[in-house]
Amino acid sequence: MAEDGINSFMTGPDDKGRFGQFGGRFVSETLMPLILELEERYEHAKTDPTFWAEMDWLWQHYVGRPSPLYYAERLTEALGGAKIYLKRDELNHTGAHKINNVLGQIILARRMGKTRIIAETGAGQHGVATATVCAKFGLQCVVYMGAHDVERQAPNVFRMKLLGATVVPVTSGRGTLKDAMNDALRDWVTNVRDTFYCIGTVAGPHPYPAMVRDFQSIIGKEVRWQLAEQEGAGRLPDTLIAAIGGGSNAMGLFYPFLDDPTVNIIGVEAGGRGVDDRMEHCASLTGGRPGVLHGNRTYLLQDDDGQILEGYSISAGLDYPGIGPEHAWLHDIGRAQYVSITDKEALEAFQLSCKLEGIIPALEPAHALAHVMKIAPTLPREHIIVMNMCGRGDKDIVTVAKHLGFDMKV
Amino acid sequence: MTRIDAKFAALRAEGKKGFVAYMMAGDPDMATSLAIMQGMPGAGVDVIELGMPFTDPMADGPTIQLAGQRALEGGQTLQMTLDMVAAFRATDTTTPIVLMGYYNPIYSRGVDRFLADAKAAGIDGLIVVDLPPEEDDELCLPAQAAGLNFIRLATPTTDAKRLPTVLQNTSGFVYYVSITGITGAAAAEAAHVAPEVARIKAATDLPVIVGFGIRTPDNARDIAGIADGCVVGSAIVAEIAAGKSVDQVLAFVKGLADGAHSA
Q1: B222 lies in some domain
Q2: Residue A24: closest C-alpha in chain B
Q3: Domain A18-60+98-212, what fold?
Q4: Would you call B60 a catalytic residue per the annotation?
Q5: For residue A302, what are the contacts with CB-CB under 8 A and spacing of at least 6?
Q6: pLDDT tens by residue, B130-162
Q7: Which residue of B has its CA nearest to A173?
Q8: What are phi and psi of B248, to 5 degrees?
Q9: Does the active-site annotation cover B49?
Q10: CATH class in words for A64-95+216-403
């Protein structure tokens, strides 16, 4: 963790797009020249001050950054242990962390002269963020969404339509995020000249995992100075906790702290109905093994023959059988710890956040909060936990009502 | 020299174009697909491209996606696909067989074990869609070392700068994808494809075979005419999906083969 970078956890990926054995560029030849061009253009943009100036301005005036770092006092008191801070990325424009990354990719797409943007979406948050930024810049937007998700996330589907996007329901497979990503890749391979594929998480072929991480890292960078402001100069969090589907909000929170050895890092996967042989979960790290899908090698839910399994989670945003390759690497080298939380535990956390803090969380961060609820009581009062409240729960109201037996008459 | 090299050398000597036919292993079931496969050489097929079903075929259109789903629902496994090839080899020792699919089922089995089993079953070459030259260490180089051809796709986006990268470590033949898109999509037009094929042929001595978007005997003749041969996949798979008998499917294949061979 030296400053010289030799023992740093922050130097990845290598020039083949690998984090250890994970990552890479497992795409068809048609797409290969496109991702090489994207890599070149991103590498250039990364060191271009005008690119970041444009990002910073939009983050501040359009998204509403920095998002607050909020001391959750009643939650802390109720759990009776560690001091809990919530990083309020649910207060961003469009209600989740997704827009941090979308802005970066769309600014890059504009600089590359692309006029048509495609995206995949699970819960709909990335689709809404993409549709939003496309509306702002007058770009054509097509969002692929699993037919099953279209059904369970109806409010977000309508939002995307209001924003002028075309939403394509995907019926292949079981009609969830994985299938939406397949169809987005099929679109991209067909419309190579004018189309930019705006991936919503830290997965896909290189350079996407690194690029999305870099855009989301604004979360962790803000936490670093915000915590110092509130707790004293140099005070670092003791534990970081974030939910993981593909893992973009988590990577954004974790990355700036990877080389701070005192910071304990925990990712929370969706345990669905329990991580066991029934495979009714989306815990790729705890219940999967390495494989190759969607352009990268990572941990995947798969059968003995290498066929990809459909995950299950109450949260559409976590319902993905893979995980970003950098998480796979952090897991294997032990820099981060990964746990899983069941639907039931997430629902309890969802309600606790509403009651104690007046914050209706999305089901995704409700998983992270459920793990906070498990460990906070066991930790001393001076231990600081920062949890990423990466999305708000409006989109999940119908799902939660159903699980709690409340008839919304919709 | 693999069976693929021998076949194209023989075609070249006769001044004939090659016809490559694709089918999905295990679609609609193992017995039927083996019967279709066994009938292919008699229908004029020069090289059989055997699809390995995968849950997430990202480069394939609905026709081949559904064929893979049918095969998987019927319980097709990679082992069964290898067994099918071995059964075919019991009565045909000359027709080249290329396995086509995606990397994960191979990776899951283990590359070394897969290559040994594939060689033993009588497979001659591999087309693995999601392994570009940048990932040659994964399977391409070990496959060549094991005596299997690794056939690469070249596409309309493979520009002059990139073409040498694609051709390096390619063997057997070069599969030119006539369109930007997925299998079974838009039709290929010979007039558009011809200059691209010429560009590739100027850079390699390997046969250049064109696929994607070819559906009819006339298409097959036109496209084969401007290359060393052509591939038909989705159109054949669609016949199988429509519930045609083995004989009907093979009659359809023969029409395509005759088209290609008339070029």
Answers
A1: yes
A2: B135
A3: Rossmann fold (3.40.50)
A4: yes
A5: A288, A289, A291, A308, A309, A321, B104, B108
A6: 999 999 999 999 999 999 999 999 999 999 999
A7: B55
A8: -65, -40
A9: yes
A10: alpha beta
